[in-house]
Amino acid sequence: MKTIIQTVKGTREFYPPEMAIRSWLYSVIRKVSESFGYQEYDGPFLEKIDLYAAKSGEELVKEQAFVFPDRGGELIALRPELTPSLARMVAQRQGELAFPLRWWSFGPFWRYERPQKGRTREFFQWNIDLIGTSSPECDAELVTICAAFFQAVGLTTEQVGIQVNNRRLMDSALANLGIPTDLRPAVFKFIDRRDKMRPVDWDAFGLELGLSPNQMEGLKALLEDTELWKQSDELVRFFEAMDAMGLSAYAHFDASIIRGLEYYTGTVFEARELSQEGRAILGGGHYDNLVADVGGDPLPGVGFAMGDVMIQIVLEQYGLIPPYQSATAPVLVTIFDETRQILPIRLASAFRSAGLGVILYPEPAKLPKQFKYADRIGVRFVVIVGPDEELAGQVTIKDLMLREQATIPQGEAAGWIKGRLAQAHSL
Amino acid sequence: MKTIIQTVKGTREFYPPEMAIRSWLYSVIRKVSESFGYQEYDGPFLEKIDLYAAKSGEELVKEQAFVFPDRGGELIALRPELTPSLARMVAQRQGELAFPLRWWSFGPFWRYERPQKGRTREFFQWNIDLIGTSSPECDAELVTICAAFFQAVGLTTEQVGIQVNNRRLMDSALANLGIPTDLRPAVFKFIDRRDKMRPVDWDAFGLELGLSPNQMEGLKALLEDTELWKQSDELVRFFEAMDAMGLSAYAHFDASIIRGLEYYTGTVFEARELSQEGRAILGGGHYDNLVADVGGDPLPGVGFAMGDVMIQIVLEQYGLIPPYQSATAPVLVTIFDETRQILPIRLASAFRSAGLGVILYPEPAKLPKQFKYADRIGVRFVVIVGPDEELAGQVTIKDLMLREQATIPQGEAAGWIKGRLAQAHSL
Fold it and tell me: Which residues 83-142 on chain B approach chain A with CB closer than 8 angstroms?
């Protein structure tokens, strides 16, 4: 026996049970996105490295992305994120598109990371953006969409929360502490590091950065201040809109949320699972100019991205993954013997024409074997046409769920099954 | 203004209108596949080159696929096809899976081809396989699925056809012409080349291969023989099952269909558009051992693959792409002025809770501007809450399709809209 070639590190295989989860996530994401009027789009999966280098520098892209030379020698990246492609697509048609744009996408991305719990090198990501306006009400819409997704998958406000802050608010708060403009980007990164360092190391790091002991005290008080948002007109309007949108119980102000990217300029947010692990589920925020790196007229917006790996871990943790339905069709039509192979095929086709999903057993076999298969794949109805049924123009149908069976005319069989399925749906 | 970084050659951007087509194709493929009881699965998008090299040789993979070294030096390929990943997935769990397997998938693939009409380097492909049995009725099921897909998208038997042949039949027909065993693989390839060469060149090529003038005459007669299938028990059963499955009008015997891959061992088929261009839409066939190259016990099956690019060209040619619905939600809620921003937000949320998709205008603006936006994005209903409506607890709703409007209590608005939408659906 040959050796089986293994998968590439950090990639996943989707057997039908795993694929059912991915497709379910995609369908919930579609439903939520479309209920707010967002249109689905997608960029290419391969892009020139220059598209990302403009934003992050070529070295960083080479370090974090899968990059390889094209046959012409040009460097190509497997897309590590969607925003640069989105920016190009918008900039290319800036004069034709009807703003504000509401666009969403769900597709594959690749990052060269050490595979670990919650991180794979090949993953799927939901991206959603509202582009072309700057109102705090738009920021609230995006955070509400995030909350509506949590509600749709069954995650409660006890299980997940969305922490919200505002970069402009933090900028003026740092100014009030006497932290000069040129030091503030470093202090933003310093704040962002706080939950990843030991307190004593964090303190030392702050002093090293050039913050005075007074400024350190002030900064700590700031980060604990749950009322700070009232000093921001944007956040006051944001939370007022959140309340009107009806899902504000998911959102909380948190002055320690900064988001790493300099790209964000206003309100920023992160969703986390609320148990001790505190897994980060998604992040997003308001930006001033989506198309800054690709040309085009300045264009503000707000958006977020959610990977499929961490949300699945959280959903599993809370038992919220829907049970796997192995059968995609409710009916198995059996083949009694070699001389009775055509009638079952005809029946299966008639059932499909009546709108029923049907699995046809592929060849004659002993009935117990066919029933065992029905059990394993999880169909509810098994249809049999033996010599007696054939002679009488009938079929026997076994309902494996209710453990009943009936022998009825062939022409009535599809209706009989559909009637029972309709009952199940109305229970 | 900076230069916009262009897309990589052979990749596509999916703006909402193009994405709507891709999603529609995916949804029809899902519906057809599931109506026959097939389960969705997917492999990784990155695979080690060795996975493909076992089947096609490393040089061919390097020539036809996107291949790059991993940081460990190992060669990785962007998957050019799904079958090797499928074979591994099945071989890995051969003892656990319930056979026959019915699996389908729709996802991205990459091939290093010269971009041309109908060919891109990054494309999507439907793969579907029935694995674990060898009956001609299974071959008929796959061809029927292909026909059911054509029927579902509106392609008629005048517009597309599925040409069917059988490798074993052809092998014995070549034997009858006195063509020795070791020459037959070359003759299969020679037959496959016929419609790509000038007749005179093809004739010369045949003699060069070592075929006698008599054998050439015999071969040509064979390729025109529309009754040849009657000599194959498999094809007799195949066409009998096709008739019982109800869509046999799409399928025809054609002795010139061979399929390039040696992997196929029995019945083979190709679907083509029937106008003069005769574009090839999909191809597939029966194989004896899916897992031959990856180990595991011999496993027969039948399957086909269809790319998204050519089928779209054919659908466009016949005007069968569904009209683009730019609005994903039927309702636009306007913002009258800055002091009246919260009530529209509340209304939009109430509408969504009632199951309506709603687009909220993102900021106060002159009403004509908001109506122009409604027109451009294609919503049907526009909801207005001005000072009079606010005072009276009412809303004004304009139905842009029927060119009517009504001013009604806010609590009745969602029901009013849903009633009109239900009428539209029942027309």
Answer: 84-85, 88-89, 91-93, 98, 100, 102-103, 108, 110, 112, 121-122, 130, 132-133, 135, 137-138, 140-141
